[in-house]
Amino acid sequence: MVEIRLHNSKTRKKDPFTPIDPDNVRMYVCGPTVYDRAHLGNARPVVVFDVLFRLLRHGHVYGADHVTYVRNFTDVDDKINARARQMQEDGDTRDLNTIIRALTDETIGWYHADMDALGALRPTHEPRATEFIPQMVKMIEGLVDSGHAYAAEGHVLFDVRAYPDYGRLSGRSLDDMIAGARVEVAPYKRDPMDFVLWKPSADDEPGWPSPWGKGRPGWHIECSAMSHELLGDHFDIHGGGIDLAFPHHENEVAQSCCAHPEAGFANVWLHNEMVQVDGKKMSKSLGNFFTVKDLLDQGWPGEVIRFVMLSTHYRKPMDWTEEKAREARETLDWWATTFSTDPEVLAAARLGEGAEFRIDAEVVAALSDDLNTSRALTRLKKLGRFLDNSSEFLNLEATQQFSHRLDFILSVEALGIPLISLSTRKRRQGLSLAKAETMMNAERMKALSDRDFSRLDQLKISLGEMGVEVRMSKDGVELIPGPDFDPAKLDAPK
Asked: Beta strand 25-29 with 234-241: parallel, antiparallel or unpaired?
């Protein structure tokens, strides 16, 4: 079995991953608060943990039937209430709770559509917080009974001083947190860092009955209750963006470990770094704030967005630039037209149940080394060039070419990039420049061997008429599109 090593935020080092139960590897990732479109920062953890999900599900790791992945929807939150009230002010005549349900339903639909476009698999479970209110109330009651939480003025708060390990995950002391934190100052708090487990709701706001009156849960208790219900009190991996490490994940650890002191909550904590745009923090005030839908509407396919994200290791800031997006599209176009295989061709090969094409060992090794997707992509680029040259210049047997092609496709799709659908789209657009360049290089090699350049000269003239400049040197052929070049007109010269 492949050994996976992951950088654990709890230990601050890269450790071998050993699941609690290899027959049921369990992972929880914090999902979105559903009141608006998902932006690039929301999308990055989806892509990162989708790769980990795929790796864990791989047949030579634990297998698809032995991995449980939970990613929640926060559908009760003050931001949702505020957006619904704004909709009322803008003329929506429905009551607040009806607006909230419609808003969260619509936003979840948007989220699914956007993440599907990025090639992300749906998790095993996608719980909505509002579906687990009784479990949250029960957990809060237990924390009050054990002395780790207290009720005050309709609120219930977690007593951070009652948990000596508070701050260990984020590496901060409690006094340092108080000195540098922006915390709600309220007279009913025993300590400024105490956080809300339950809060009262106004008459028109979402609310549920509880021992402390009608109210709603605080944000942090939601994830603790949902993960416990679906994964148990001790599971393998908890993930999310680095911005959640404190206070959200720190608070999850505190309340979960106090609620279930005999368990360890999550063994491994993974945090992805933030997203930048052109080297700057993404911000609406800077005009560089993009939702996934914005980029899709601008013509960047989901595969390109995913490729750009995977080009940077998840623990480093990811910088979105149009230059990176163009480079990603060129690489994907080349792969799709050069290596992909139609579903009809795959079916014609009559691959039986026992037929397997291996995923490149170096790609698996890169992903197993703390999800080093950038190294995996570098390997695929190198492998792609080698296989392309092999199929053109070494004249491999057709079956061997087919096997290599499938190996390459599976290696790429291990990262969630669907080359088959890409190639179908590319064929509708005509032959790509990358494919034409590959063909011209093959013709050049043949001409040098046969000492007959007539066919090469004809192709050069044909390409020139299409608006493509052909440059030849001792290193090979390079095709340069001119200002009048139209990719749709670039068909394979006969």
From this structure: parallel
248: annotated binding-site residue?
yes
For 256-297, how does the pLDDT look when each residue is reduced to its tens digit (9 = 90+)?
999 999 998 999 999 999 999 989 888 777 888 899 999 999
pLDDT tens digit sequence for 124-175: 999 999 999 999 999 999 999 999 999 999 999 999 999 999 999 988 777 7
The full set of domain ranges for the chain reads 5-272, 430-494
258 appears as a binding residue in the annotation: no
Residue entry with tokens 């190294």:
375
413 is annotated as contributing to ligand binding: no
Distance, CA of 114 to CA of 125 (rounded, Å): 18
pTM: 0.83
Distance of CA 60 to the CA centre of its chain: 22
Domain spanning 5-272, CATH architecture? 3-Layer(aba) Sandwich (3.40)
What DSSP string runs through 301-320? -HHHHHHHHHTS-TTS-EEE
d(CA 383, CA 439): 18
316 labelled ligand-binding: no
Directed axis angle between helix 96-117 and helix 40-57, to 10°? 60
Tokens of 18: 């050993």
Question: For the purposes of burial, counting CB atoms within 10 Å of the CB of 215, is it exposed (0-12), middle (13-18) or buried (19 or more)?
Answer: buried
275 membership: H or E segment, kind and range: strand 275-277
Q: What CA–CA distance (Å, rounded) separates 381 from 327? A: 12
Return the amino acid letter for 237.
I
Closest CA to 218 of 127, 147, 154: 154
DSSP string, 246-257: IIIIHHHHHHHH
Q: Cα 6 vs. chain centroid, distance in angstroms?
A: 16
CA atoms of 146 and 164, how far apart (whole Å): 15
What torsion do the CA atoms of 120, 124, 128, 129 make, to the nearest 10 degrees? Answer: -110
